[in-house]
Specification:
Helix content is about 50%, strand content about 5%. The longest helix is centred in the middle third of the chain and has 28 residues. The protein has about 425 residues and is mainly alpha-helical. It binds carboxymethyl coenzyme *A (CMC).
Length: about 425
Amino acid sequence: MKKAEMLVEGKKTFDLPIIIDTMGNQSLDIRNLRKQTGMITYDPGFGNTGSCQSQITYLDGEKGILRYRGYAIEDLVEHCDFVEVAYLLIHGYLPNKKERERYADLLNRHSLLHADMQSFFRRYPDHSHPMSILAAMAVSLSSFYEINLEEDPELQIDLTVTRLMSKMRTIAAFSYRKMKGTDFVNPSYTYSYCANYLNMMFSSPVVPYEPNPVHVKAMNKLLILHADHEQNCSTTAVRLIGSAGGNLYSAVSGGICALWGPRHGGANQAVIEMLDQIYQDGGDVRKAVERAKDKNDPYRLMGFGHRVYKTYDPRAKIARETCEEVLKELGKRDPLLDIAEELEQVALEDDYFKEKNLYPNVDFYTGIIFRAMGIPTNMYTVMFALGRLPGWIAHWLEWHHDPFERIGRPRQLYMGPTARAVPPIAERE
Ligand code: CMC
């Protein structure tokens, strides 16, 4: 076994084992560090911390590589639909024709929502953000579809995974109908996964509706792009909740809450709001770039920068191409695409963005595609969540079967007051 030597205070050396992953990357194994040295590591934001060993997704932020279970994202987007990719992430291999058909059938069979859950939607205020509804409904599923692990744990988990994959799509569409104030449309066995979702969102009793194949194709691509991204903020939340023994519904609900933040999945909504603001203000992208560089201004270019990618996010590249394709096929023009492309060009030529390796990320172009599909801005992060769902599930399952699994519990560097006595109330300032 390879080892690294660590010198503490110039006196004593300790051996730290080195673990080499399947791609040849080396990591220091510090599991016994505190026992051996009395010290812990300090790594706010966990930028240098590997929290688990995983077989799901490989990401090389320097080279712009993203693979699910070894398959390149570019390959998957080209040759698979979202259901196949979800199957791949959850089961570890691509389904054959028979497995694919069986899975589609299973997803259809579990797509209805308990009638009592429908009344929950009706009680939400009209202005509710659909992400708040999504998170609440995800955890509520645990009351309606109990997981009885005493019976047959693996079967129960399988059932929960299928229910989540299927019912979250229904919940997402219902949250949109609630927002619109229109009746819910139930899922139908006649449609594929994405077409079914679009039908639940947009079909109407008074205007004929048939899901547009261009929209269906784009939605499949977008969900695949979002399907997993290794140990990001929401997935870490899911794994942490799982590590406490939290069930899949509660872990996914926690993932949804983490995703909602504008630095994470909420960025897709924030990008469109930013582009629209630039457009409304006359389209001066340079002004936006200058603001983003100003240390005294909290303004950031939304859809730019990434913790791991120090080059162009491969998902952003596919999203940009898909965006151009979709608008062309629909015969639409969107001034926000022109703004986005100009903004990207100006930022990429700017020293500030060059020096900090800030490139467009997945959220930069996806909002324009959702817009072209008629999806409202506050549903964008819901779309991201639908895409990320199989990734969250795969990570929860991986934790569940991990022989090293322990409750997630980081340590801290305490910088507060040292011990002191409580002063009598009359003496307090
Ligand atoms: N605009 C302007 N400056 C930026 C930006 C940006 N979008 N992103 C990072 N920086 C600067 C930041 O000010 C800092 O500068 P300095 O070193 O002088 O203090 C430096 O770049 C490093 O930034 P950081 O915040 O320390 O980097 P991080 O790895 O902690 O954060 C990030 C990554 C994605 C949160 C951040 O780049 C950001 O806020 N981007 C905008 C929001 C966004 O698009 N989020 C979507 C991420 S991709 C999808 C997802 O994960 O859900």
